[in-house]
């Protein structure tokens, strides 16, 4: 069958099941970089059973798909995505029982930190200000200011698209390390929710830590521009990418609308009309300069999504 007809029939099928979807969605509208062409189809499941249904149907028909949380660690390509982008943003239920919190995968990580604070639970302060979803945080083992997801994660509920099964992975089974988990290396594993174990704390003290961390972000990061945060992984615990880029004289270096931030050289910002091609050109330039100056290969932290991924 013609590709457009397959997608149209898919959309009809999902709509009939009451699952929200949209064709030709501009991915720039769902990317913290504000970059990206159109997705053939975008789907917004509200719960795990809708997500299972969507994924099983796509897998059966061998239609490519990708899971997206808040799009804050992704570079969508200019050509867009030929297939289905599944957004988890509507799967955002949160349950607190004692010192344990269950969060649906699309819950904002920052909102989760605020809910923990409201329940006088400490441990998630580091998450306040990370602009991702719970799913993105678990998959990437997001972290900041000395804290990381691995410190508080108890378990992760996973839908295994290959086996068509739902199961729970313990923190140990998640194999979390620096910006890495078993889910980041296996695209068949989709996080649908996560449970965190926190400790009882003092609301005012938690609030003070969160305010301090947010202030540090505002003063050090170019939050006034679209970006996807730090572009490169730290190559070693004692090597700071931002400093290497700054010392190489690359602050302000620009390719098209993509620029190395003057405020934080580890960030590439979209100063206006940047394309994915601009960002990738700038990434390559930085990598070659750092290789020449330090003999270090910088690896991208940001995920590239599209035809060239
Ligand atoms: C201004 C700014 C500041 C930032 N600061 C930090 C920081 O301090 N610390 C930090 O660690 N990061 C930081 N980031 C990067 C980013 O916010 C985190 O990596 C975040 O965890 C990504 O979550 P997300 O929901 O946006 O993931 P997305 O960008 O939507 O996805 C990232 C990857 O995870 C996959 N994925 C997402 N959800 C699922 C799922 N449910 N199941 C399986 N795979 C999934 C996607 O397919 C993709 O490969 C920052 C970004 C910005 C823009």
Question: What do these coordinates show?
Answer:
The protein has 309 residues and is an alpha+beta fold. The chain has three domains: 3-87, Uridine Diphospho-n-acetylenolpyruvylglucosamine Reductase, domain 2 (2-Layer Sandwich), CATH 3.30.43.10; 94-205, Uridine Diphospho-n-acetylenolpyruvylglucosamine Reductase, domain 3; 222-305, UDP-N-acetylenolpyruvoylglucosamine reductase, C-terminal domain (Uridine Diphospho-n-acetylenolpyruvylglucosamine Reductase, domain 1, Alpha-Beta Complex). 32% of the residues lie in helices and 27% in strands. It contains ten helices and 19 strands. It has helices at residues 3-16, 48-60, 109-118, 134-140, 149-152, 171-174, 182-185, 203-220, 241-247, 276-294; strands spanning 20-26, 38-44, 65-68, 74-76, 81-87, 94-97, 100-104, 121-122, 143-144, 147-148, 153-160, 165-170, 189-197, 199-200, 227-230, 254-255, 258-260, 267-270, 303-305. The strands form six sheets. It has a five-stranded antiparallel sheet with strand order 6-7-13-11-12, with helices on both faces. A hairpin with a 2-residue loop joins strand 6 and strand 7. The longest helix is centred in the last third of the chain and has 19 residues, at 276-294. It starts with a helix and ends with a strand. Bound molecules: flavin-adenine dinucleotide. The site of flavin-adenine dinucleotide has 33 residues, from strand 3, helix 4, strand 9, strand 13 and strand 15. Flavin-adenine dinucleotide binds at residues 32, 66-74, 88, 105, 130-133, 135-137, 139-140, 142-144, 183, 190-191, 221, 223, 227-229, 303.
